[in-house]
Amino acid sequence: MGTSLLDVPAAVLPEDLTRDCAVRSPNVRRASLRGPASVAPDRWPTQPVPSRRFSVCLPELGGGSPVGESAGRERRYSPEDVLRMSGGKHFELIEGRLVEPNGGALAGWVLANVLHRLVESSRDDAHGWVFSASLQYRCFPDRPDMIRKVDASFVRRERTSRELLDSLIAPVAPDLAVELVAPGDEAEFMEAKIRDFLRAGVPLFWLIFPVARTARVHRLDGSIAGLAEEDDLDGEDVLPGFRCRLGDVLPPRPEGT
After folding, report:
1. Residue 130 — φ and ψ, nearest 5°?
2. What residues does 206 pair with on adjacent strands?
3. Which of 51, 78, 99 is the last residue of a domain?
4. 15 with 212: CB under 8 angstroms?
5. Average of pLDDT values for 103-117?
6. Residue whose C-alpha is closest to residue 117's, from 241, 225, 256, 242
7. How many CA atoms lie within 13 A of 158 on its CB side?
8. How many C-beta atoms surround the C-beta of residue 85 within 10 A?
9. Tens digits of per-residue pLDDT, 38-92?
10. From CA 65, how far away is CA 93, in angstroms rounded?
11. Number of domains observed in the structure of the chain
């Protein structure tokens, strides 16, 4: 396919990753799914702290042992387990592991603004349905047991069915996926998520960096566009007529900056 997140020229990429990806709080718990190293040392501005797997006790699934390395042995879960467990909608399922998405006040504030604008546009023009992060996706033909989440998504009206609206886990890929990068998010993890959705046929993916006040647009044809806060988030062919200045969904800059 086209250029990946980490193939963007170093003059463009590191500042976003430094501010939004590489800062890891010791209180953040995220599953580490690292494969072979794919980031050259000079491309990664800070040394990330090793991740810890999220642990949760699931007595209703039998055994009641925690998930993760701290349990001494690691249980693999299925999509059916996720459907049955209390709070399963909050997780992604990757290679049988439960993954807890990161968040935070700033990302939540920006997300609320993005959702509001998407809902207003899609409702006024009857283009389709907007969904929050409560909707999970199981739409990956090459990895049928994987469940992914994004912060916001949009499905065109002609692709929306009663099956989708009644689903806890959507069986179809969205037409637009939106993800906000929060402190603690790893670059490799975000790159893998974008790749998974594009391979599933998602034509448009917005990756928003609230701290750096930038965004990156990934398209199905492999093209990537970087946005500054003066540039527009554009619905393109997916959501015709939608245009929103990136800075309008970001909080005001503090005085003097």
Report:
1. -105, 135
2. 178, 217
3. 99
4. yes
5. 94
6. 242
7. 2
8. 17
9. 333 233 233 333 333 333 434 344 433 334 444 456 789 999 999 999 889 999 9
10. 17
11. 2
What whole-number distance in Å separates Cα of residue 141 and Cα of residue 58? 28
101 pLDDT tier (thresholds 50, 70, 90): confident
Q: Which two tokens stand for residue 173?
A: 């890929």
Two tokens, residue 99: 């993954």
Q: Which residue has the tokens 């000079």?
A: 42
* DSSP-derived secondary structure for the chain: ----GGGS-TTTHHHHIIIIIS---TT--------S--S-GGG--S-PPPP-------GGGSS-PPSSGGGSS-----HHHHHHSTTGGG-EEETTEEEPPP--HHHHHHHHHHHHHHHHHHHHHT-EEEEETT-EE---TTSTT-BB--SEEEEEGGG--HHHHT-SEESS--SEEEEE--TT--HHHHHHHHHHHHHTT-SEEEEEETTTTEEEEEETTS-EEEE-TTSEEE-TTTSTT-EEEGGGGSPPPPTT-
Residue whose tokens read 């037409």:
175
Residue type, 134: S
Q: What is the pTM for the complete model shown? A: 0.73
Phi, psi of 54 (to 5 degrees): -70, 135
Backbone angles phi and psi of 116, in degrees to 5: -60, -45
Q: Is residue 183 part of a domain?
A: yes
**Mean of the pLDDT values across residues 202-228?**
97
Parent domain of 75:
29-99
Assess whether 56 and 121 both reside in one domain: no
